[in-house]
Design goal:
The chain has about 190 residues and is mainly α. About 50% of the residues lie in helices and about 5% in strands.
Length: about 190
């Protein structure tokens, strides 16, 4: 019963805000959700087997479809159906793309070896799209654009975005893996600070 009273009250407060205040609230909600996703991804990347050896799990399919928001307001990364454990012994089919092309890192689109930075790039796409309320790359040629074009400036889509958030988006969407943040945990900490 409390939830039934609280949600309409919060909705009423939100609806009374001006457009700029709503944009800031929307931005803060997206940042919090993406921080939750980054934390979940950090846990997956740090997973170990029963002997304490790192599993090297990569999600490989981070997209809005695989982020669920619980009734508790926490975002959760789901669908590890095409996840890969680095160093596994079973072979995979080469030159077969698994996942959603608009969310694939440039190195995956070039059929190069992909690691943690590829998951971080995908996280960056979801972050950008959540904040800008539009697709990063869409339509024909989106894979080529993801590989070749510099990332867009978040501030053009979200003028109220703080400089630290704009910088993080640029880093996450860097074309070269070694120019991205070092871990999902670092991304979560930086989002938390924002």
């Amino acid at each position: 019963d409390k939830k039934r009273e609280v949600v309409p009250a919060l909705t009423k407060v939100y609806m009374e805000k001006d457009a700029n205040q709503k944009a800031i609230i929307d931005m803060l909600v997206v940042i919090e959700w993406m921080r939750d996703v980054a934390r979940g991804l950090a846990h997956a990347h740090a997973a170990k087997d029963l002997d304490g050896r790192p599993l090297g799990v990569l999600h490989r399919d981070i997209s809005p479809d695989n982020v669920l928001i619980g009734l508790d307001g926490v975002a959760r990364l789901t669908d590890f159906g095409i996840a890969k454990a680095l160093g596994r012994r079973t072979a995979t089919t080469r030159h077969l793309i698994k996942g959603k092309i608009p969310y694939m890192a440039p190195e995956r689109l070039r059929f190069e070896e992909a690691g943690v930075p590829a998951d971080l790039w995908s996280l960056g796409v979801v972050l950008y799209e959540g904040l800008a309320h539009r697709r990063l790359y869409r339509g024909e040629g989106s894979a080529r654009r993801a590989m070749m074009e510099p990332p867009p400036d978040l501030r053009e889509a979200v003028p109220e975005a703080p400089a630290s958030l704009v910088e993080l988006c640029f880093e996450l969407l860097a074309k070269e893996p070694d120019e991205r943040p070092t871990s999902a945990d670092e991304v979560a900490r930086r989002l938390d600070a924002i």
